Amino acid sequence: MSQIKQLLLLKKQGLSNHKAAGMAGMDKETVNNYVRKAKADPLGIDGLLKLDDPVLEHRLKGGNAAYPDRRFERFKELLPHLEEEMARRGKTHVTLKLLWEEYRRENPGGYSLTQFRYHYRQNNLASKPERASTILADLHAGGEKAFLDYAGDTLGYIDMETGELVRVQTFVACLPASDYGYALCVPSQRTEDFVHAVTLFLKHIGGVPKILVPDNLKAAVVKTDRYEPAVNRVLEDMANHYGCFVQPARPLHPKDKALVEDHVKLVYRRVYAELRNRVFHSLKELNEAVAEKMAAHNRKRMQQHPYTREERFLAVDRPNLLPLPETDFKIRCYTDLKVSPNCCIYLGRDRHYYSVPFRLVGRQVHVEYTRTLVKVYSEGELVATHGRDSTPGKYTVVNEHLASNSLEYRNLSPDRYVERGGRALPELGELFKQMFMTSRMPPEMHYKTCDGLLALQRHTDPDLFRTACLTAVRFGKYNYHFVLQLVKSRCEGLRQQDPQCPPDHANIRGPEQFS
After folding, report:
1. Does the CA dihedral 233-239-240-246 come out positive or negative?
2. I need a labelling partner for 361 at 20 to 30 A (CA). Which of 17, 83, 154, 428 fits?
3. 400-403: which pairs have CB atoms within 8 A and are 24 or more residues apart?
4. Do residues 339 and 362 touch, judged by C-beta distance below 8 A?
């Protein structure tokens, strides 16, 4: 390191690389390499000269990315083609130089022949199997597993609207065969965020490992068990979608996923530590910085191996990954609902109604829904599919599901409800009549409202309910909630505005009867 500091001092004095190499007694290419790294370092030559020798050695020999330019990204894409061509060179007589010439024709600014050969040979070197140890070691097959975990410490960003520091969780994944790492910041450890992180990780590596090994997270595991943990239904669906298998690590056995535990420590040193003085103003901005640091981490030369994690990943993991499906996984939620008399189910999460074939009125149906679709099943048969709509209180209706003219639906009709309402209270019958006459929706859409008003009438003082119905007709508010609020308030607001409203008296029960 003292010799390198001599070199940096000579460069600081303005000497050329050739002269500095002669005076320092170093090879010219070695000098070129050190000077290039020193100029690319954020500290510059002056800052590097102030460092202690061990720090400087780590920074110039092991601390910089092996491939800081974009040419390597294009080279990674070409690797499968190069390997295929060289594998059949006995028949085609192709040479690496010929492949380089073809590469330069398509990429004029690409690698020189020396660098092209170097990177190709690094890939071959990384492809060779590890030499077996004299002790029992856990040697992982390429593309077989991916370990998934969260870092214990958190990162954060400043919310631009509130000025508050928003803490986020850091998802960490690792491919054990190559020790290739991935990190992503997500808002929480909830199932939705965990699945989102896993999906982006699989897209990042361009394939699917055969086995996913999550920690015993609440997002991934419903019940922890020493040998057979019950996998979260969502994670199970995701594994089925990608054609892989989920095998959670045993609780209190960190050695089951030791590499990802080590990778969390590496993320602390190479992401957290290097970003400690930076301020971010969005989750996207934070993740861009994390991705940049992780790319540099994967391209650093490993201390005990002559290749980088990325080179090893391209050689042993990428070729053995399962292909990604054509579509990304979407979380599916499940529920069982009863079909109302209006031929609809009510999805409480969206407060929205979806129509179902009339023959299922009164039956229990199974509902599966994603962010975009709602599917309804009855006895294993798909009976309805709707685009998901999160508009509260609205209806998504397929006309064929309704049964206005069906004999099977003859007991439920607008006339039938008007008749029933009139028998209970003439004013209620008039409210039903006006509701069906003025509505633009199919009559089935109001059957549930009618059932609700009939039930409310049975438990309400007749004079009070009569007043509520007259008020609803007067203002054209033919819905259950409007009448219910009038009953609960005992029409107090109306009496203050309308002197002709019937007065309150002892026969009218208090609001506690309707709560």
Report:
1. negative
2. 428
3. 400/357, 401/343, 401/355, 401/356, 401/357, 401/358, 402/343, 402/355, 402/358, 402/442, 402/444, 403/343, 403/358, 403/359, 403/444
4. yes
CB atoms within 10 A of CB 153: 12
Pairing of strands 373-378, 333-338: unpaired
- 368 Ramachandran zone, left/alpha/beta (phi>0; psi -120 to 50): beta
Q: What residues contact 383, with CB distance under 8 A and at least 6 apart?
A: 356, 357, 360, 365, 376, 377
Strand (E) positions, 232-332?
Answer: 245-246
Q: What is the DSSP string of 357-370?
A: -GGGTT-EEEEEE-
| Main-chain dihedrals φ then ψ at residue 180, nearest 5 degrees | -75, 130
Tens of pLDDT, residues 394-413:
888 887 787 654 434 445 67
What residue spans define the domains of the chain? Answer: 2-34+46-58, 71-127, 145-320, 333-401, 413-513
CA 484 – CA 458 distance, rounded (Å): 13
What count of residues does the chain have? 515
DSSP 308: B
Average of per-residue pLDDT across 129-144 = 57
pLDDT tens string 366-404: 988 887 789 999 887 889 999 988 788 888 888 778 765
The span from the CA of 338 to the CA of 361, in Å, is: 8
- Give 210-233 pLDDT, tens digit per residue: 888 887 666 556 555 554 445 567
Residue pair 507/463 in contact (Cβ under 8 Å)? The answer is: yes
Phi, psi of 438 (to 5 degrees): -95, -10
What would be the CATH architecture of the domain defined by 145-320? 2-Layer Sandwich (3.30)
| Residue at 466: amino acid letter | R
Report yes or no on whether pTM surpasses 0.85: no
Would you call 147 helix, strand, or coil by DSSP? strand
Q: Which residues share a beta bridge with 185?
A: 170
